[in-house]
């Protein structure tokens, strides 16, 4: 009976199916992963496309840490498979005998258990792996899901290293708990190797097993909700990684550490370790999903608005009218070439190609997938989860201006119609390679403004990643824009044409081209302008007003702007910081006060935006793409501008229209000035005001 029971415990291990293939693939990490965990592995999550540059970098980082030790931190996009890659590459290095003790750390114990389950499944349920690594897979497969059998299991077969036979050897392995000890099969490179997982929310010191110390630690997404929001909790986790995990190695060789993560905030531990300035030994790298945004961001903003509308098509009772509304999808299909132009994504395979009941697919490109995420969770969260660019979190105070407020501050007048009582019309134009962003405003004498038009003019004739023909294309676009407003002018309610009094156009880029276009059109109509200041993106970080009346420069000094004539060109220099503040203040001014700003269109109800209000989505987000904040720096209250997004072109065009209005005499009237105007006389001025006016006149 004893002999029979002993015989029943013996597992006969077959020989390696293809030793030459095994040796060839072991020499190439990527080839090994793609073969043994490709589409024939029969696992639920095979590698089904070639690794992206982000994923190749992860593989190389883990390999370097295994071979040479040292540290590496990589922030990849959410969903790029970094955990799966780490688990399987560690398994490969264990099976080949390169690592005899590795630890995979997760943020919590539950997450660590999930990783260990994935590793065990990869060994037990992968026929490709079992064929070439039978000395490890067959003892595990023979457990048939009962890990207790491992303690008494015996194995027979031929040694992998020299081919000599062995009989009824005790495998003595463990396949449960927080770690797995691989079968002690004679001649197996992975015999008695250990793969362990631990949660960073528990003690990690003193990991030592049978005289072995960990050789490599992979730290997978270390942050929790607490460490991503609390500096105190993040400090504790940082100490655990630096001191506890950093001290797990032996005396002669420190442990190699690889952090694979996705940033959650600028407070998070992951943000610190992927910043070379804070943690230089980790050689931090941050990868973006959207490596380069598309050129036509205006079309994508419109797509996002349509997508949100598709997702929110509900009746008054809250019932979804059409769960498969495809207006945004069709909008993209009709303009795909233009909307994809210039965009570069890290992983072109990341999109949902599921077929819907109407025969179409949910998504057709990774670019569309990215903007679907934007519509679902917002731009800031998408930038965090997909581009590893979380918004700044601080105790700073800003104006609180929101896109919704701008969209809802409608005038009730149609687009391109000058409201009654307006006395001036101005335009601001921001220049880009592919677009001119134009904003036209009508002004009342008391400083109240009406945005009657905002749109993008396409610059035809330019090519992506090429400057050939750019100058002529921009010049033609400016000429076309100015000709169009002459031939199709803005009108009042009665249809009478109202000409634009002054246009300012950004000359900070392709300056000579802008000068030439303005000279051709006429400086009385359009003038080149440059913003100067910390928020203008130029070398000069502060705006300095020159003295008025200089005979050498013939400078005209205004209110936060001055006009000089270098090379006989009336260049307008603007205090960008001041006029951006002015722009935001106009939207925050109560609508019953002079100096407020309205935008064309009819309003909706409290529950949903009207069609006109939705049309302002792109414009409104450009206006709030930068924010002025107050922060305490070394005990001093400092005001400065912080970017939220690079899509700020309508903001620049808008504040230039405000400068143009100031140049043609528009000022915000005080209550005293309004009362005096009603009585038909000028208000009394203070001595300081009179002196300032005298100095301005020289």
Written account of the structure:
The protein has 698 residues and is an alpha/beta fold. It has three domains: 2-286, Rossmann fold, CATH 3.40.50; 290-385, no CATH class; 408-667, Nucleotidyltransferase, domain 5 (2-Layer Sandwich), CATH 3.30.420. 35% of the residues lie in helices and 19% in strands. The strands form six sheets. Strands 21-22-23-20-19-14-15-16-24 form a nine-stranded mixed β-sheet, with helices on both faces. It has a seven-stranded mixed β-sheet with strand order 6-7-3-8-9-2-10. Strands 1-4-5 form a three-stranded mixed β-sheet. α17 (470-487) runs parallel beside α18 (511-521).
Number of domains: 3
Number of helices: 24
Computed over alpha carbons, the radius of gyration is: 33 Å
Q: Mean pLDDT score, rounded?
A: 86
Q: Spans of 5+ residues with little confidence (pLDDT < 50)?
A: none
């Amino acid at each position: 009976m004893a002999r029979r029971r002993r015989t029943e415990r013996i597992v006969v291990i077959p020989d390696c199916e293809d030793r030459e293939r095994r040796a060839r693939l072991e020499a190439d990490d990527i080839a090994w992963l793609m073969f043994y965990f490709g589409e024939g592995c029969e696992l639920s999550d095979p590698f089904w496309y070639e690794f992206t540059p982000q994923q190749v970098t992860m593989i190389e980082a883990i390999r370097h840490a295994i071979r040479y030790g040292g540290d590496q931190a990589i922030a990849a996009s959410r969903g790029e498979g970094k955990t799966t890659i780490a688990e399987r590459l560690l398994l490969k290095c264990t099976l080949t005998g390169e690592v005899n003790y590795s630890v995979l750390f997760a943020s919590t114990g539950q997450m660590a258990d999930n990783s260990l389950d994935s590793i065990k499944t990869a060994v037990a349920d992968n026929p490709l792996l079992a064929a070439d690594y039978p000395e490890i897979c067959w003892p595990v497969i023979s457990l048939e899901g009962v890990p207790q059998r491992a303690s008494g299991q015996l194995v027979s077969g031929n040694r992998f290293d020299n081919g000599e036979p062995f009989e009824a050897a005790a495998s003595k392995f463990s396949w449960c708990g927080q770690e797995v000890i691989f079968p002690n099969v004679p001649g197996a490179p992975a015999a008695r190797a250990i793969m362990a997982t631990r949660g960073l929310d528990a003690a990690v010191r003193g990991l030592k097993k049978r005289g072995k110390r960990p050789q490599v630690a992979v730290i997978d997404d270390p942050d929790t909700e607490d460490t991503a929001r609390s500096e105190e909790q993040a400090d504790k986790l940082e100490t655990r990684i630096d001191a506890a995990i950093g001290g797990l190695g032996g005396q002669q060789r420190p442990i190699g550490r690889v952090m694979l993560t996705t940033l959650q905030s600028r407070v998070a531990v992951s943000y610190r370790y992927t910043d070379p300035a804070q943690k230089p030994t980790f050689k931090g790298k941050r990868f973006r999903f959207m490596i380069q945004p598309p050129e036509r961001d205006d079309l994508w903003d419109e797509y996002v608005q349509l997508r949100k509308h598709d997702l929110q098509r509900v009746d008054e009772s809250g019932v979804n009218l059409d769960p498969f509304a495809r207006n945004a999808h069709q909008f993209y299909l009709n303009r795909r070439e233009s909307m994809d132009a210039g965009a570069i994504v890290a992983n072109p395979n990341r999109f949902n190609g599921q077929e819907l009941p109407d025969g179409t697919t949910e998504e057709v490109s990774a670019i569309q997938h990215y903007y679907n995420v934007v519509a679902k969770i917002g731009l800031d969260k998408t930038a965090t989860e997909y581009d590893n660019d979380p918004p700044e979190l601080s105790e700073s105070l800003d104006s609180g201006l929101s896109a919704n407020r701008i969209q809802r501050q409608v005038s009730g007048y149609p687009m391109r119609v000058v409201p009654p009582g307006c006395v001036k019309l101005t335009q601001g134009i921001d220049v880009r390679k592919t677009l001119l962003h134009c904003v036209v405003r009508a002004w009342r004498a008391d400083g109240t403004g009406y945005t009657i038009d905002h749109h993008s003019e396409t610059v035809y004739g330019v090519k992506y990643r090429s400057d050939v023909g750019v100058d002529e294309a921009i010049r033609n676009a400016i000429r076309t824009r100015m000709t169009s407003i002459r031939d199709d002018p803005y009108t009042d309610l009665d249809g009478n044409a109202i000409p634009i009094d002054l246009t300012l156009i950004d000359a900070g880029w392709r300056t000579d081209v802008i000068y030439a276009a303005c000279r051709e059109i006429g400086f009385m109509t359009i003038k080149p302008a440059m913003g100067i200041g910390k928020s203008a993106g130029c070398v000069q970080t502060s705006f300095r007003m020159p003295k008025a009346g200089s005979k050498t420069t013939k400078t005209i000094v205004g209110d936060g702007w001055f006009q000089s004539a270098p090379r006989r060109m009336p260049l307008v220099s603007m205090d960008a910081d001041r006029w951006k503040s002015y722009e935001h203040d106009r939207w925050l001014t109560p609508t019953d006060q002079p100096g407020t700003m309205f935008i064309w269109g009819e309003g909706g109800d409290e529950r949903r935006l009207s069609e006109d209000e939705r049309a302002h989505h792109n414009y409104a987000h450009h206006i709030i793409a930068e924010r002025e904040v107050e922060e305490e720096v070394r005990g001093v209250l400092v005001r400065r501008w912080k970017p939220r997004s690079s899509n700020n072109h309508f903001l620049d065009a808008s504040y230039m229209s405000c400068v143009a209005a100031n140049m043609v005499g528009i000022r915000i009237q005080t209550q005293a000035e309004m009362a005096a105007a009603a009585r038909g006389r000028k208000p009394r001025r203070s001595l300081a005001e009179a002196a300032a006016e005298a100095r301005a006149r020289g």
